[in-house]
Amino acid sequence: MTSNGLPNNIAAKVTVILVTYNSAHVVGDALRSVPAGLPVILVDNASIDHTCEVAAAVLPHTRIIRNQTNLGFARANNIALEHTDTPYALLLNPDARLQDDTLPTLIAAADDYQDGAIFAPLVIESKGRPRPAFRFLMPARIKVRDTFDYTTLSGHTCTEFVSGAVMLLRMAAFADRPHIFDPKIFLYFDDEDICLDSRRRGYSVILVPESTASHLAGMSTTPSKKVAYTKERYRIASYLYFTQKYKGRRSSYFKTTKMLFRFVGSSLGYLVTLQKDKFMQSASRVAGIFTYILG
Length: 295
Fold this sequence. Notes:
The chain has about 300 residues and is of the alpha/beta class. It has two domains: about 10-215, Alpha-Beta Complex (Spore Coat Polysaccharide Biosynthesis Protein SpsA, Chain A); about 225-295, no CATH class. The protein contains ten helices and nine strands. The chain has helices at about 10, 25-30, 50-60, 75-80, 100-110, 140-145, 190-200, 225-245, 250-270, 275-295; strands at about 15-20, 40-45, 65, 90, 95-100, 115-125, 155-160, 165-170, 205-215. Strands 1, 2, 3, 4, 5, 6, 7, 8 and 9 form a nine-stranded mixed beta sheet that branches. Helix 2 (about 25-30) links the parallel strand 1 (about 15-20) and strand 2 (about 40-45). Helix 8 (about 225-245) runs antiparallel to helix 9 and helix 8 runs parallel beside helix 10. The protein is globular and about 65 Å long. It starts with 7 loop residues before the first helix and ends with a helix. The model has no long low-confidence stretch (mean pLDDT about 90).
């Protein structure tokens, strides 16, 4: 047994991976939630705060890889996964927290289901509500945020999609992939993409509801208006790329054209009426469209 009661056979099976960007305000608690004795790799995307220093102080054995520029979530995860030599990798957002039951329960399920590539706990957000990430892909899951009854879940469930806030990967299921995450996705839709890709290759994506974790959604990076606008830009760009990848260029062309007219119009309207915040949000969406168009 490890010092916190985690069985040694589990401790040898999994590496915990975190990707950070100006995450000093949350990364300490994330690392404190990691069971003792587990290898941890943290890839930092050129933070300008004290993220790496906090991580080193809280969990000194953490392997910290510092990128010189912000490479995005997918590429940073790929870097960490290239350095992983355990059978499983647990992806942990810096604003997520493991519970005592999270890892043992996930590993037990993964050992039982050899056809599973991805396993995830039920993620509870800050208001005590389960994250709407079961059987629903964006944008459909937004529509069921307040209507799906998660208390009806019983037992392990094969699903279309699980949250990337806490996600266990079976490394062998990705052995033939040049990259586990699509490096063309900078931020957002990376978890949906890896789930759909795994299912298309014949693997299962399994939700383990008796395993739980908490998530302070949207807090991985210190919040600011600039961060919010940047996230909105990449959310739109990733959505259009995701649409192209799985529904084809015709579908993405239709959505791109529709969104371009909509957001250019709203940006001009907000500019004329001097609604600065709304203008910046809408302009960020226009920037996201051009980010997608320009590749």
